[in-house]
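debug: dumping io for the single-chain case to check the tokenizer round-trip. Nothing else runs in this session.
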Amino acid sequence: MVSIILRNKNESEYIGFTLQSICDYIPDAEVIVMDNNSTDDSLSVVSLFNDRLNISVININNYTPGKSINDAVKICSNETILVLSAHSQIIDMDLPYVVKELKTHAAVFGNQTPIYRGKKISKRYIWSHFTTSSKVNMWSEIEDRPFLHNAFCFYNKSDLVNKPFDETYSTKEDRYWAADILSNKKSYLYTPVIGVNHYYTTNGATWKGIG
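debug: decoded output
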């Protein structure tokens, strides 16, 4: 079994695609929606899936990416946890492979295909990390630090309990966590065996040089 953490802030345009992909690929998952005071109808979209998925909605104040994940981890029922963007749609999944790799690695993150207004764009800048080859402890030459990405990343709950995310960062909490994991002699894995379509949003932090 898998617990899936979705962080939501006015994601009504794509969160339905995300939830439907969970139905298609991990239908028995526990889904925890961490809602950051949304003002659109995204939670109404979430409610459409109550007949298909086991969904809990938690309202969070004083939001940071790390805090939302840490708070959700406390109530996750399963050892395998997926942190998934509310504008990412699962398109490739091999859950037995992920579970096997999590016995060796603290985290396993997958391929991302950037989609801009329906168009698959070239993988430049941050997207160039998502290659067709697996990589242990991926290093970003662009950022000059370890690279891990929480738009689509599996974790062991025990590792997140022992090493929670730093709640002071407003972004890139995943990179700082990866650096801490390496300093503690643990590893993480990138694999293209699993993947998502990552849809453009106006507030997205990774959309530089669209085209």
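debug: round-trip ok. The chain has one domain: 2-199.
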